[in-house]
Amino acid sequence: MGAQLRVYKRRIKSVSATKKITRAMEMIAASRIIKAQRKVAASEPYAKELTRAVTAVAQGSDAKHPLLTETEQPKRAAVLLITSDRGLAGGYNSNAIKAAEQLNTRLAAEGKEVDSYIVGTKGVAYYGFRNRPVKESFTGFTDNPTYADAKAVAAPLIEAVRAESAEGGADELHIVYTEFVSMMTQTAVDARMLPLSFDKGTESLGAGDGVAKGGAAVMPLYDFEPSAEDVLDALLPRYVESRVYNALLQAAASKHAATRRAMKSATDNAEELIKSLTRLANAARQADITQEISEIVGGASALADANAGSDR
Amino acid sequence: MAELHVELVAADRKVWSGEASLVVARTSSGDIGVMPGHQPLLGVLESGPVTIRTTGESGNGTVVAAVHGGFISFADNQLSLLAEVAELTDEIDVERAERALEQAKSKADEDAEKRADVRLRAVTAAR
């Protein structure tokens, strides 16, 4: 076998091994999307009812609550960025990070300091490499987040919002995550969680997770047990948790979808590569054969010439 | 007879939904019973059993669920019970809850003790 041909054969072998791996990853991701989507759907009733309840209290009572009222001059904003722990998902992480960067620039332009909270190794690595301060980071559960994870993420956020601005408390709470629009489309979005604003707020409540369509409808007058303030006090942390949970689930579903797409194109590329390498290998083999034949023919005719010469 | 529609939802799933004639739950200021036509209500739930007297399609009977904190909201004959964690008594493993209670007591883990206690109370209430 010619040297050239051996090189091609070796490359084809290695590319097909890679192709097998990417195909397997594609299939794993595909099955995980379904699971993640199911989880998003299962979390929806709770999110919907909770949003309805928050809207009801906020509109149905004149209770003043730090989590509802806008500060006159917001100085500090907390931004929660949700990325994934692992790569191989195409532009998934860089899109989310880009969206967070844009939001940070916008907030900075409005004269607010930004505190970053990050979920996922990829985001942490991005900020770590650039020596940016990170308030708090969470890793290890992005593939399959549970409600307990969402609680753990939400706890420092709620604490930050509760604290006084002078003591480093945040006046606003933003979240950046990748929304799962469909199997083919996932978009990085940013949304303001707190304070809730109800003219635009009902819309943004719904835009994030497809809930609270009836936000504009007039709510009945509720009886609060024990009091509107207490209900609100208990309700808003749960609301933040449920929004974080929903964002984590959507981000997980989006990540799997992005991985599936990236791995599908990797498999396609590997196939393409194998095809062209096979062509080259065939050409090399043909060249080898041709050369061998011409050598044999050349050798034979040389022999024949030599024999003919000795006969004479 | 008038009936109200109940949705019992936990953070990660819908636990139970159906028609009922009476729902009894414990709010932070005491037990409250909600019947059809009740005034709109929004309350904070304590950890404890919630009793749902079912009617209509779900048949006459009683459904008891262990609810670990949450909210009750009622308007237009729609009652929703929101809880971070909620389980029907059928789903509760009594032996496991008892073991958990023992363990929690020996470790002085208050949260775990409360959780196990609520489960056991719900099971007793269902009997």
From TrEMBL, chain A:
> Is Membrane there in the keyword field?
yes
Q: How does it sit in the membrane?
A: Peripheral membrane protein
The subcellular localization recorded is: Cell membrane; Membrane
The record's principal subcellular location, in a coarse class, is membrane
Q: Pfam families this protein is in?
A: ATP-synt
Per UniProt, the keywords (alphabetical) are: ATP synthesis, Cell membrane, CF(1), Hydrogen ion transport, Ion transport, Membrane, Transport
- Tagged with keyword Ion transport: yes
* InterPro entries named among the record's database cross-references: ATP_synth_F1_ATPase_gsu (IPR035968), ATP_synth_F1_gsu (IPR000131), ATP_synth_F1_gsu_CS (IPR023632)
Q: Per its UniProt record, what SUPFAM superfamilies does this chain match?
A: ATP synthase (F1-ATPase), gamma subunit
Q: Which family does it belong to?
A: Belongs to the ATPase gamma chain family.
Q: How does it assemble?
A: F-type ATPases have 2 components, CF(1) - the catalytic core - and CF(0) - the membrane proton channel. CF(1) has five subunits: alpha(3), beta(3), gamma(1), delta(1), epsilon(1). CF(0) has three main subunits: a, b and c.
User: What protein does this entry describe?
Assistant: ATP synthase gamma chain
Q: What species is given as this protein's source?
A: Streptomyces spirodelae
Q: Which gene encodes it?
A: atpG
UniProtKB/TrEMBL annotation, chain B:
Q: Which Gene3D superfamilies match?
A: F0F1 ATP synthase delta/epsilon subunit, N-terminal
- PANTHER family recorded for this chain? ATP SYNTHASE DELTA/EPSILON CHAIN (PTHR13822), ATP SYNTHASE EPSILON CHAIN, CHLOROPLASTIC (PTHR13822:SF10)
**Signal sequence region:** none
Q: Which residues form a coiled coil?
A: 85-114
What HAMAP family does the entry give? ATP_synth_epsil_bac (MF_00530)
Query: What is the protein named?
Result: ATP synthase epsilon chain
The UniProt entry lists membrane topology as:
Peripheral membrane protein
- Give every ATP synthase F1 complex delta/epsilon subunit N-terminal domain span: 4-86
Please report a single Pfam family linked to this protein: ATP-synt_DE_N
Quaternary state and partners of this protein? F-type ATPases have 2 components, CF(1) - the catalytic core - and CF(0) - the membrane proton channel. CF(1) has five subunits: alpha(3), beta(3), gamma(1), delta(1), epsilon(1). CF(0) has three main subunits: a, b and c.
Where does it reside? Cell membrane
Superkingdom: Bacteria
Q: Which family does it belong to?
A: Belongs to the ATPase epsilon chain family.
The answer on whether this UniProt entry bears the keyword Aminoacyl-tRNA synthetase reads no
